[in-house]
Amino acid sequence: MTWKSFHHRGEILGSVMTTADARRDGILPMDVEGVAETFGDELSLLGALQLRWHTRLAGRIERELAGQPMDLESAVIAAWHDTEAQLPGVRAIIDHYIDQPTDPAMRTALTKAATKEHLLLAAMAGRMSLGSSADPAAVRVGAEIAARARATSPLVSSPAGAHAAPRIFERIKAALAA
User: Fold this and answer.
1) Which of 94, 110, 95, 102 is nearest to 168 (CA)?
2) How far apart are CA 3 and CA 150, in angstroms?
3) What is the chain's Cα-based Rg?
4) pLDDT truncated to tens, each residue of the chain (178 aa)?
5) pTM here?
6) Contact 90/128 with Cβ under 8 angstroms?
């Protein structure tokens, strides 16, 4: 990849994230100009968005831990909230496709990404060692931390975050309206 194509890819990804934040419907904005040519398919775009989420989350965790090193889990949850506030459309897309992957390859990729996120959360909260990456208990602990972060998310209770509500609720409303 050339320097020019690297920057072009970043610009397109920025446009995708802006569109996702505006829509907050959880659907990959494949209609953004340049997406098909730059990313090719949904899985490649979703992978780029997942990487952006993970990188931003890891950075926010580091910053939070610097400020409140005695309460690790609260710092990790605060970092998750900050990241969600910065990338609400990206988080909505990730959540949507975790619930409804379009194919087995997407399901596999998102399962691996969620596992890595859960391991990061558990390790940074001081609830596991970095060497326990294959430990299902560590993944479970990280999933519990992520669930607490979601349950206490300011976006879920705010009007702007109404679009970020769990997908099952939206499906039930649609079924009742039909």
Assistant:
1) 95
2) 37
3) 17
4) 676 776 788 999 999 999 999 999 999 999 999 999 999 999 999 999 999 999 999 999 999 999 877 899 999 999 999 999 999 999 999 999 999 999 999 999 999 999 999 999 999 999 987 665 668 889 999 999 999 999 999 886 443 444 444 445 444 545 555 5
5) 0.82
6) no
Please give the full DSSP string across the chain, using - where no structure is assigned. Answer: --HHHHHHHHHHHHHHHHHHHHH-SS---TTSTTHHHHH-SHHHHHHHHHHHHHHHHHHHHHHHHHH-TT-HHHHHHHHHHHHHHH-HHHHHHHHHHHHS-SSHHHHHHHHHHHHHHHHHHHHHTTSS-TT-TT-HHHHHHHHHHHHHHHHT-HHHHSSGGGGGS-HHHHHHHHHHH-
Amino acid letter at 73? E
Other CB atoms within 10 Å distance of the CB of residue 109: 17
Using a 10 angstrom Cβ sphere, with 0-12 exposed, 13-18 middle and 19 or more buried, the burial of residue 169 is exposed
33: tokens are: 């100009």
